[in-house]
Design brief:
This protein has 93 residues and is mostly helical. Helix content is 24%, strand content 4%. It is elongated. Iron/sulfur cluster binds next to loops.
């Protein structure tokens, strides 16, 4: 025997709309976590491509750039990044 549900019929507790929504959100979050884990490390550009140098440009240096990650890396440029370095993608904090 099958049950018929319409918009006015309350869903059983195990099939509540809220429960279904929570399940969908949990499934989506799990899928995103799997994708992030499977994705290769984010590619960064070479020092040469960014015109990186180990010296500041005026009062602009990596330590004052939004892309700098202490102690010595950058989210955009690969390799060891000096706090007193600079490149053409400098972005003031
Ligand atoms: S200036 Fe900014 S973007 Fe360029 S290497 Fe330094 S931290 Fe990275």
């Amino acid at each position: 025997m099958s049950q018929n549900f319409d918009a006015m019929t309350p869903l059983p507790a195990c099939l509540s709309r809220r429960g279904l929504l929570r399940g969908a959100v949990a499934a989506t979050g799990g899928a995103m976590a799997l994708l992030a884990a499977a994705a290769p490390a984010e590619a960064r550009m070479t020092e040469r491509a960014a015109s990186y140098r180990d010296a500041p440009k005026g009062n602009e240096d990596c330590a004052n750039c939004t892309l700098f990650r202490a102690p010595a890396s950058c989210t955009l440029v690969e390799g060891k990044i000096d706090r007193k370095g600079w490149c053409r993608f400098y972005s003031k904090k």
